[in-house]
Amino acid sequence: MNIAVLNGPNINFIGIREPHIYGTDTYKDLEKIIREHCADKDIGVEIYQSNHEGALVDKIQECYGKVDGIIINPGAYTHTSIAILDALKAVNIPAVEVHLSNVSKREPFRQISYIRNYCKKTITGKGIRGYIEAIDFLNNLNNNI
Ligand code: DQA
To answer: Looking at the whole model, is its pTM more than 0.70?
Structure first.
């Protein structure tokens, strides 16, 4: 199985940005636990981060025909981007939405997620462990096909 883990704007700054909200684990820590967990489970993984909406759309399109599952934390684009939703629908690859923070307990503008209805599952408020839960979910899904 091959998966892609896609992160949107400012996720590369975790550990530095608002640690009371996003925690103290760094982006390097995130990459490390993802790579270790995927190696453990024999899953191929590409990890990608961009601060640009179009670059994320390009990367989702690149996944077409290559990956069996997408884990995506679009950062603030969660709440604004129809383009990212359309890209996910276009490639039609099972996806999991992950947020480090518990967005449901935050500002009203964070309650909107354009991608949520497309995604098979949403994981929030678990910090970087949420990505591991997402990997396991996609792995189980793939094994049950
Ligand atoms: C986030 C939540 C978003 O509202 C915010 O814009 C982010 C990070 C999270 O992981 O909790 O950048 O996606």
So the answer is: yes
